[in-house]
Amino acid sequence: MNTSDDHLGDDSDLADAISEIAAFFNTPVDPAVSQNHLVAMFDAADEFITSHAPIGSAPPVTHRRKPVLKTLTAGLVFKIGLGVGATALAATSGVALVSNLGDSSPKPTTVSTATAGDRDLGAIELAAAAGKAQSDYQAACVQRMQNLSSKMSEIMDRFAAEHPELAAQMPDMSIDAPESACTFDWKTLVGDACATEAAKHPDPPAGVLEAMPEGLRAIVADPCNADWANVDWAGVMKDFDPSALVKAACANHAETSEGLGFKKFCESDFNFDFDLSKFPDVSQLDALTVSFGSLHAIFGTSAQSLSRS
Amino acid sequence: MAIHGFDEVLTAAKLGAHWALEVLYREMSPSVIGWLRSQGHSDADDIASEVFVNMVRDIRQFYGDESRLRTWIFALAHHRMIDARRYQTRRPITYSDPNDLPDASTRTDDIESSVLERLEPGNVYALFDQLSEDQRIVITLRIVAGLNLEQTASAINKSVNAVKTLQHRSLATLARHYKENLSAPITFE
Known about the structure:
Number of strands of chain A: 0
Number of helices of chain A: 16
Largest sheet of chain A: none
Low-confidence stretches of chain A: 1-5, 53-137, 273-309
Distance between the termini of chain B: 37 Å
Mean pLDDT of chain A: 56
Radius of gyration of chain A: 23 Å
Oligomer: heterodimer
Shape of chain B: globular
Strand content of chain A: under 5%
Order of helices and strands of chain B: HHHHHHHHH
Helix content of chain B: 55-70%
Low-confidence stretches of chain B: 94-118, 183-189
Number of strands of chain B: 0
Number of helices of chain B: 9
Strand content of chain B: under 5%
Radius of gyration of chain B: 17 Å
């Protein structure tokens, strides 16, 4: 029972009632029910692990990469993760909305993208269309939302978990009012989510930026306004030189007196005998961006240090 | 709520460690299931299962402390409860069959025993029946789930002021009906 921050239960009679109600419902869970719940949870966890290899685990490719290289490749997508991962849920919400408005060619794959986990790049690519069709398909939107409400709730749950500070801006998807989603300004929410996330992470210094593939620089520099739909990912990966990127990062790091774990890394004998032709495809890149939290802990620290140089 | 070594538990849960997920479940499930029951759902256990499976699937996206985790899980529960209600026919809420609730004979706690003497299941639900749905959700999140005002507001995506208003009205209603029946024991059905 919570009585600490307001006058809940300060009436003695009502306090009795409140105590009784709290005790009435807070009973031990039936062991058989608990067992069923735990089995379902463990199955879900195992299923998720199987389909989402985290950074540090063996990649689902024929060759094995060194952990440090995986960190580096993850570093390359540091800002991609920032722009994509942070906004994916909101973007996906909008995309699932506008791409399924009941026009002549509904895109069911968009919805599956929204819920299947490989949401990042696909979602942001489609997010470019978010808002465009919204006003054109109002009636169809309402109809469609009635069918999507459950999926949308899941998406919004995920978004709320990642961005609780933006929860107040989110449309009320939990009420039987699909029109609220159809009139909602998704583009603004996506923009705010991106800006919020971007503000948490400093831009890489110029040297590091220049070491990135040309096709990636604009996105890294301004992920919230980048033209995600037209990124030439094949070209980006073709131009990707991990050694140059690390050297640039280390060179910038040398200019700062602040020592972090990255300094040790720079002083180590790193060597990337990496066959770029075997670089994972975009879907695997997604897996890296999904693990953005881990990535930030590893690479973001160094990026922050660099930014202060 | 106090999970020893919460940060480690959360990190392990994000990696899918069963032990960590079980720690979170053991800590959260009584209040989650209790809250779902307080909403009158006879299938509270099934809805709770969905809530915790959702938690497992999305916990990698979660960042925050215990308080925020609790808020998030109740937001999940709120959404799943709304979803479940949609699947029901659009008839008025029918509360659980009191016979489905935990048997008083299985309880050993003295306080709970005394509670059951005064508040039979039908009485509690009838008391809640005096409230609007929003009022019931707010007051049960406060009383049963133990959320504070800010957590409650966040869980149901309303402003703190809106929650305060709903809480004030529901308390006034509960107080009125509770006092009215103190002298004469409440009997339902």
